[in-house]
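Hi Y.,

Following your request, here is the sequence exactly as I used it, all 187 residues.
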Amino acid sequence: MRWKILKSEKLFQTGFFRFRVDECELPDGRVMPRYYVMEFADWVNVVPITKDGKMVLVRQYRHGADREFLEIPGGSTEPGQKEEPQEAGARELLEETGYQSKQWVYCGSHSPNPALQNNRMHTFVAFDCEKVAEPNLDPFEDLRVELVDVQHALKMWVANEFDHSLIAASLGLALKTLSGRGYPLTL
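Below is the corresponding structure, written out as tokens. Let me know if you'd prefer a different format.
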């Protein structure tokens, strides 16, 4: 069922993504003259849990939606550097929150927007997180760290209080791992 790319042209490239247009032949022979694709490096989300059962969250303004969102830490793997998702997750966790963990569990991955993007979103749970530094934010990051009891955070997820779809999906992927470590979803 794959489409055959007949021609591909790069339209725009920046450090974080590439925008291209493809001419594609569908399995039945029809030709799609212009299909636009954004190529991103893979992304990673981390569900950080402290030793005393708190989820380390970040509240940050997202300009595209013109409002704040409650999120889990995360970000991009380094474009063009073959950075492993767990390595990127550890880097993002430390930069955004000042927390570190030695206990990482991979929960899986999903496609953020497969109609337009080629990348994957990887999700980890990091257990026994400890604060080792102050956040070291990128020059234009604007976020605040919040600690929330894991059970309360899961109830917030059920109530759609994490309405950033990538965060909600990653929390869903983490449920089995959290439940197996003593944090079942209880309503």
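The CA atoms of residues 134 and 184 lie 30 Å apart.

Thanks again,
Q.
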